[in-house]
Give the backbone structure.
Amino acid sequence: MKINLMKTMALVIVGGLVTFQACKKSSEPQPLNLATVVAGTADLNAATPPTNVDPKAVITVTFSANVNATTATTSNVTLKRTFDNSPVDIAVASSAKTVTITPAKPLDAGNAYELDLNAGLMSTDGVAFIPVNRTFTVIGAFAPPGAVAYWTFENTTDDQTGAFIAPASGIVDVTYATGRNTGAGMAASFNGTTTIIEYPNGPNLVNTTDFSLSLWVKPDSSALGIGGFDGFEFEINKNDCKLAAQYQTGSTTNGQDLWLDGTGNVGFSGWTFSKDLRPPGFAAIVQQTWAHFVFTYEGATKLGTIYLNGVKVKTQDFNAYPADSPFLTATGLKFNTTATGVGTNFALGYYSDRATTAFGWATYTDVTTNHFKGLMDDVYIYHTALSASVVTQMYNTGKP
């Protein structure tokens, strides 16, 4: 009896110890582990970093425990563009186990980014987070930052900077098709007779000392412009292409073509280099196949340059023009405000907008002139002159 009583007491004591130890264990702070990380619908925890992240994606991070909101700050959560290690301006918010990262503006198409979650993050129990980083690439081809406008045509005609948005009345017969590769997403399709997209405030794209136009096209004919050569127009034909633009020359403006036909330097004034593309020739390289064009002008040097598929194919030096040429004083591109019958919308699909009536040889209602037929994608306009190395990178990361 006495022995049984002692056994019972021992069991009670042991049970008490078990209960005490269990209570003690359950009250210990839980670790702060990473559960999920998504950018829009893209999984940043996948074995392979995603390459299709939407430029407007919000990043959502879920942890295994509640996060101390005072530690969910831009000091402990950072996002940078790996192209130049430039930090991205973000807003960070937290609720329970979730931290939300919202970029201040759309991310750059084709650029790679790194999300860093640092040790300063803590749980509400005071447990520090073990730092991790996640990388991803925004859908589209690489392009350097700083574009004043760019169109990716991911089932939308909107300029991704938000500055140039076409009203519904300015969008005519646009459809979308599969782009040149998976990363490039979709492309805009133009029917060659009626398709046009018109953006207000076009002169804001033209008036600049330095200028670059970059775009991918799979063409049969002409492409885009604002006011024809009273602003600028990119025109592509079977055997040649050009950027016809108006330049500030002293107190007035004058028009000049930056032209390429691929037959070499034919001795025109200012032509310092023109690549002979034969064989196979301009048409074989460009027509009905994806091609990347970049046109640049640098005010300080007065150099105009054309790149085709990542390679410099034309240099035009305004300093090498005859002594009486107004282009010796050219300081940059300038919309000709004195022109009459010239609309001010920037048009994709035609060399000018539908309001332009100044040029009798081509009006929008004439379906046989200057309409673009084919696919167009990743149109970028910069108020800087892109370097040769950047252009090559744009082509190499965006090519089919």
Observations:
- The domain at 34-137 is CATH 2.60.40.1220 (Immunoglobulin-like).
- The chain has two domains: 34-137, 149-398.
- Helices lie at 2-26, 203-206, 282-286, 388-398.
